[in-house]
Amino acid sequence: xxxxxxxxxxxxxxxxxxxxxxxxxxxxxxxxxxxxxxxxxxxxxxxxxxxxxxxxxxxxxxxxxxxxxxxxxxxxxxxxxxxxxxxxxxxxxxxxxxxxxxxxxxxxxxxxxxxxxxxxxxxxxxxxxxxxxxxxxxxxxxxxxxxxxxxxxxxxxxxxxxxxxxxxxxxxxxxxxxxxxxxxxxxxxxxxxxxxxxxxxxxxxxxxxxxxxxxxxxxxxxxxxxxxxxxxxxxxxxxxxxxxxxxxxxxxxxxxxxxxxxxxxxxxxxxxxxxxxxxxxx
Amino acid sequence: xxxxxxxxxxxxxxxxxxxxxxxxxxxxxxxxxxxxxxxxxxxxxxxxxxxxxxxxxxxxxxxxxxxxxxxxxxxxxxxxxxxxxxxxxxxxxxxxxxxxxxxxxxxxxxxxxxxxxxxxxxxxxxxxxxxxxxxxxxxxxxxxxxxxxxxxxxxxxxxxxxxxxxxxxxxxxxxxxxxxxxxxxxxxxxxxxxxxxxxxxxxxxxxxxxxxxxxxxxxxxxxxxxxxxxxxxxxxxxxxxxxxxxxxxxxxxxxxxxxxxxxxxxxxxxxxxxxxxxxxxxxxxxxxxxxxxxxxxxxxxxxxxxxxxxxxxxxxxxxxxxxxxxxxxxxxxxxxxxxxxxxxxxxxxxxxxxxxxxxxxxxxxxxxxxxxxxxxxxxxxxxxxxxxxxxxxxxxxxxxxxxxxxxxxxxxxxxxxxxxxxxxxxxxxxxxxxxxxxxxxxxx
Lengths: 282, 444
Prior knowledge:
The complex is a heterodimer of chains A (282) and B (444). Chain A is built from ten helices and eight strands. Chain A is an alpha+beta fold and 282 residues long. In chain A, the strands form four sheets. A two-stranded antiparallel sheet of chain A has the order 1-4. Chain A has a two-stranded antiparallel sheet with strand order 2-3. Chain A has a two-stranded antiparallel sheet with strand order 5-8. Chain B contains 14 helices and 17 strands. Chain B has a six-stranded mixed sheet. The longest helix of chain B is centred in the last third of the chain and has 22 residues.
């Protein structure tokens, strides 16, 4: 036998031996996975955003398959349609689902919230928040360096170059919670989308007392409780000089918006109000 | 001459206010005394609106072991207890006192006479230190009584007095040593008695020759106190660096100086301890340096806690025209202020005015892997790596790189030829990892 045959034979034999070992091992240690998991994964959007609270779509699929009911398990990206498909696959009933959207609760743009000092260090919200109160006198408000913009995987959040505040694109927002986690000031909140995407919310998280806030920001909630007294549906609560509107109980009547003296309560996507014509005396 | 072995830098000293006599700052119309501390829990107010208080009366009680009492620095009526900004720009609870007269508690000994002998037992001394609300006056404001009570099983061998003042510009400790040398040495012997050691070493950097002379002359009349001149090097005032410089011992990572048998106290703290133990005077005033290149007159001032920085600055000649940044503390570890409404706290060691040309950050360039930050780091860390990890949120890896050892001295940022903001990222990483560690401890 010459050297060529020997080497070919050795290689072929090693190959066959390795194949046999691999085959036996794969038989012995085979992991059975519920085929439904794979089906559910294929029905999910596969963006692995973690908005459902699990580590990616596979984790969510496993949870869905093992759960007794689908109540509380929601894929925020896919919404109701996806959850219906998942429920079909598993033969379960989809849980209740209220679409939510990210809401930025700060209206302190450059006009209403004067800059008091100049910061020229590293421009990320996390580092600035760790270092000091920020460039304005409001230590609660948006810093405007865009950690939320960076965290958004869906291109749904952008800092408006004029106001220096983040703006949410409702069409693109999947309420995956990434921006909520990224904001060191906890300004962003996931709120119910509401009928026809109409929403009313307090556009401020400043917990200081009235007199002080006005110096730092003109559109801040001053804790005057006017909205609290106006609301007939108990949707508004006060804590630490700050009003909060519960999006589940709010009936979108817009009365609180009218009474707010600093215009800190904001309405979104409503038709413009009919302005009563004043009778001009001649 | 000795110094610490690892890392360190030597920034220009600029001790412009050296040799300026300590002047008393005017007592303000309204004192706004902070209840919070940088380290440890905030104090709980024990006075209410409308109460009459005297100088030295307790107004805030420590909220735990690692916390300190707060005393009224002025006499008058408590106007309110409300939030006010501190050096960080955040609002923390302060006690507002409208000043009337200057009436001190009768128990405080206001005579200038120096009382050398101390008849108290160690436990009584420590109780007095704790009651008087004494915290580390070097800047970190760590409650002093905690340091004097070593954990069980640990024995202190030597007391180290930190009179290094390695920060550029600051001269408050220097001037205090020139004016109150004997009181400080009495304070040292009181401390030696409190922790039960027979040896104390005071480290003074060699750029304060007059202080070294005075101290060496006086130390001969005290037992067991040695004055050691040290080579000028920043951050020699760091506890672990000072122990290395004086004793040649390295404090292991994650442990306290008591591990190598040392207790370190700042020289300003020592003077406060003298006043508290021998004169019954709680901590309600401190020395601070007002300085800056563009300032016409520099000075060292003794100010009551709660005096607004704006008032002291006005007394010192007002904010100079060419000011880009105002820093509370020294240029290396101080905090840039967002407002001069901030009031003197226990940790305020100075106000520094930096001219516009020097205050602006330079343009950041790419890392050239020169390792100057690694050479400069006095804790033996790799700042360039920590910055990269912090940018990528690699918290567990940062923990492995001993991020919690960082003393935030700023040597890395100072030495970087590419002007990279190393410390900003490292400090953010340190806070985040610190939070993770605290959560982990809480779960256990």
